[in-house]
Design brief:
alpha+beta, three-stranded antiparallel sheet, 6 helices, 10 strands, disordered C terminus
Length: 182
């Protein structure tokens, strides 16, 4: 098979393939075949590779969404109300069914991520990155920063502490004195 970009030849490869997905981060696929151009290194996915990528992406989305608190989700009626459509139109909408609004299943009911529904109404695409590059699961303490705790998925961005804060002076403060609204 010849490359449409440079005229080179595609050769079949398999092994570990790393893909940078814009919504869930790094996806690692092991053992699925793909084709790579010998000149420009363009990649063509086999059907098995495309299915493996889609399966891994859906698995990662489900894992990440399960970390959100339940109050970040809304039911179909509330989602339809935000979008200004009927529930029937919501359930029949192909773009929404194909993941343009993040959704999860809780107790047999489909619930929608409110932030995603609002973004979908504004832009026509409710997807946004669900990962943060450089996030480490180990406890890291950075100078003059504290974590913001909105929900588990947002714990990854530190906020700079203002000079003169009790945090920088090393004094003890009570839990009530934490102010994340700045």
């Amino acid at each position: 098979m010849n490359c449409l970009e440079c005229g080179g030849t595609y050769t079949e490869k398999s092994g570990i393939y790393v893909l940078a997905d814009p919504y869930v981060g790094k996806i690692i696929i092991k053992g699925a075949p793909y084709y790579q151009c010998d000149k420009c290194e363009d990649i063509l996915y086999s059907e098995a590779m495309a299915q493996a990528i889609e399966s891994e992406r859906n698995k990662r989305i489900h894992e990440i969404l399960s970390q959100f608190p339940i109050n970040d989700f809304i039911n179909a009626a509330a989602t339809a109300s935000i979008l200004g459509i009927s529930r029937q139109a919501l359930h029949k909408n192909r773009r929404i069914n194909h993941g343009f609004i993040y959704q999860a299943e809780v107790g047999g009911l489909t619930v929608y991520l409110k932030q995603s529904a609002l973004r979908y109404k504004r832009t026509g695409d409710g997807r946004f990155p669900l990962y943060f590059q450089g996030y480490s699961h180990s406890a890291e303490y950075m100078k003059d920063t504290i974590p913001i705790r909105i929900s588990p998925i947002y714990d990854r961005y530190p906020r700079t502490i203002k000079s003169g804060s009790p945090f920088t002076k090393g004094t003890h403060i009570s839990i009530k004195e934490y102010n994340y609204a700045n």
